[in-house]
Fold this protein.
Amino acid sequence: MWVNITVGNKGEYSKIRLILFTIIGVIIGVFISSIIGRVILLYLGIIFVPVAIYLGGVALVYGTLKFIFTCIYKSHEITDKKFEALRIAMEQKDWDTYNELKRKL
């Protein structure tokens, strides 16, 4: 659909001007919408970026503590199993196994 744009006094239609006005309008519209979008994103960023940093820090601390406590728990669990095996070997008077387990501890 073409818009009537008169050129001079003759009332002729100019497709070139229509294309130029369309291109200029699109450029101005994109420019204005990008400015509005940046302002909105700026205000959203002011709100959400600190929240994201805080949640990232909380997740990092939680993951680190969970890893440390899991390692401590597993090491105690392994040590408890070794002591249990040592006790069983001592009760059964299996001195070769007892000496090997004691050396590993």
Summary: Strands lie at 6-7, 12-13. DSSP finds two helices and two strands in the chain. The helical segments are 15-91, 95-104.
